[in-house]
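User:
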Amino acid sequence: MPAVVVLGAQWGDEGKGKATDQLGSRVDYVVKFNGGNNAGHTVVIDGEKYALHLLPSGILSPGVTPVIGNGVVIDLAVLFTELEALQARGVDTSKLLVSANAHLIAPYNRTIDKVTERFLGKRRIGTTGRGIGPTYADKISRVGVRVQDLFDEKILAQKVEGALDQKNHLLVKVYNRRAITVEETVEELLSYAERVRPMVADTGLVLNDALDAGRTVLFEAGQATMLDVDHGTYPFVTSSSATAGGACTGSGVGPTRIDRVVGVIKAYTTRVGEGPFPTELLDEQGQWLREAGGEYGTTTGRPRRCGWYDAVIARYAGRVNGLTDLVLTKLDTLTGLERIPVAVAYDVDGRRHDEMPYDQSAFHHAVPVYTELEGWSEDISGARTFEDLPPAAQRYVLTLEEMSGTRISAIGVGPGREATIVRHDLLS
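Assistant: Predicted structure:
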C-alpha cells in the first residue's frame, strides 16, 4: 500500500481538496503537513459545499483518520470552530489526531502579522493576517509554543513570557500598540487545553506504524509549490514547506516511504496576494476567467489574479517535487473559448528561457512566449472518460501533458466529487 503526497503545482487554489477527497475513500490516513488556516480547500459532495481551512480534507471521508502534523501551525479557536461546523452538518470528527509537536498561533502572532503588513505598505507580502508567518518565525527562533505545552501551565507561561519580552517592545515602541500580557495569553491558550487533549498524539509514530501495517497514508499540502518558502517566488511566499519534501519534515515520515507525488494543477493559472505572475491577464479575459471559474479565495474571499496555463511552472513543479502524476482541474472553465494560449517559455530582455529563471528579478520581468491551442464549445461537465471529451479538449490535455513533462492521470470537469475523468490510478 502506498504513501502518496498531494500538493499544488502552481500558486495554490488548484483543487487539492477535491483531489484528496476523491482518494479519501481508498486511504486510511490523510495528513496535513504544513501551513495553517491561511489557505482553504473547497470540497463539493452531493451538491453540498464544504470549506476547510485548518482541517485535512480527509475528515469528510468516513473511515479515514485525519491527522494534523507537526509541520502545521494551529489556531485553536479556528480548529474548534471548524470542528463544530462539521459536527453540526453530521460529519464525524472523532478520529482527528493532532501532533503534540505542532506549534500554536498565539494572539500576539496574529497582532504582529496584521501590524507588520500595514507597516510594510507597498512592500507588503499579501498575507492573510492570521498569524501564520510570525508563528513560523517563532518556531525557527525557538521561542514558539507547541501543543504539548498546554499541558504544563508553568512551562506554557515561561514560553509565552519569553516570546513577549521582545514582541512587546516592538508593539509599543515601533507600532504604537498596547503591550500584551502573559496572563491574558496563557488564559486564552489554556481555555482549549482539555478540549484538545484527547486528540493529541505522537502522530509521527502513528503514521510510521500505519505504514508498517500496510495502511495507505495520503499527505495533503497547504498552499503550493510556487508559494514554498524555499522554492517559491520569494519573498512573496508562505512561511512553510509546501513542496514534497515538506511532507516528510512536517509529518515525521522519512522520504524512502513516499511512493507517489501527485501535483494538482489548473487548466489555467491563478494567484492570490502580491508577487510576480508572468501569464497574468489584466484585461477582460482575466475577468472572464475569474467569473467563469469562481476565482475568489476560500479563506479570504479575495478575487484571485488569473492567467493562462504556464508550462514553465508546471515543469519546475515536476522537478522540485519529483512529481509522478498531475491532476488537471477546472478544464470545464475553458469551455467556450475559440483559442486558448499556453505559455511555453519566457522572454527576459530578449533571451528565451525554457526553464524557470533562477534570478527573481528576471522572473519578475519575464514575458510569456505563447502558443495557441484550439478551444471547444461543447459542455464537458458530464464527461467521465477521456474519450467523452471533444477532440479539441483531448488535444489540449495531451499537449499540456507533453509540455509539462508529467503524465496527467485525472481531469476535473466540474466541482462535484464525481465530475472527474480518471486516466491512471493514483494509488497503484
